[in-house]
Amino acid sequence: xxxxxLAYHQKYENSELHIVGKGAFGxxxxxxxxxxxxxxxxxxxxxxxxxVYRQNHVLILPSTYMNLGDxxxxxxxxxxxxx
Length: 83
Description:
83 residues; mainly alpha; two-stranded parallel sheet; globular
């Protein structure tokens, strides 16, 4: 996904990739792609995370343990209970 985004970013230079959540490779990816600077936005939580979801145009959910239904219910519950 990141390599595909980088190819896309060459054509659309104002694009950004927001990577959120707690993945097993988060720190490895941050180090590997730190030279790209502001092209990538890394993990945010709470209200910051909700704002990221609101501001973006595309959601890609490559999770191996959470399906779209679970993800949506979690986001809705966070919004209802403000947690």
